[in-house]
Amino acid sequence: MTGQATTEHLDGKGMPALPASARRLFASDREATVVTIDPDGAPQASLVWMALDRGSLVFGVEEHRRKVRNLRRDPRVTVIIHDNERTADGAADGLTQYLTVRGRATLLGPGIPDEFTALMDTLARRYLGTDVYPFGNRGSETGMIVRIAVERIGGVGPWVD
Question: Phi then psi for 29, rounded to 5 degrees?
Fold first, then answer.
């Protein structure tokens, strides 16, 4: 199945909500590719650890990163997560499933070291199997949280109709 989400997947505010079939990707160690827009209009892609929090996608980032500059200028973002499962719907058997989410980002921080550390510790548990985020920017004053409001869901998999 390929395409975009329909009204069956709307949350209480009229925005697309991730169905359970897509939410499971955020309980796995599947990394996400975040695509922002450079000043010249070119796409800029980054691989990140990502979580689902109250219907929004969230990830941590340092303030000096290019994606932060891009999101401050233009909050539109696309997220892609490759699944480890393949389709078996009869129409496109064997395709690698992937989720695409288009949305708008809100930047929280800098100056939120406790919140940044809490998020990164949570992500480290999932991605590294350790209770504490082990890298040098733990507790960073320049750490930020990017929160993405889901606007459109697509890709190949059971999350599209």
Answer: -100, 25
Closest listed residue to residue 123, CA positions, set 22, 28, 23: 28
Spatial separation of the C-alpha atoms in residues 73 and 68, rounded to whole Å: 9
Q: Which of 108, 47, 33 minimizes the C-alpha distance to 78?
A: 33
Please tell me the distance from the alpha carbon of residue 60 to that of residue 64, in angstroms, as a whole number: 12
Query: What are the tens digits of pLDDT across the range 66-94?
Result: 999 999 999 999 999 999 888 876 666 78
Region of residue 155 (phi > 0: left; psi between -120 and 50: alpha; otherwise: beta)? left
* 8 Å CB contact between 1 and 92: yes
Q: Phi, psi (5° rounding) for residue 71?
A: -70, -30
Fold of 2-156: Pnp Oxidase; Chain A (2.30.110)
Closest to 157 measured CA to CA, from 14, 28, 18: 18
- Give the global pTM: 0.88
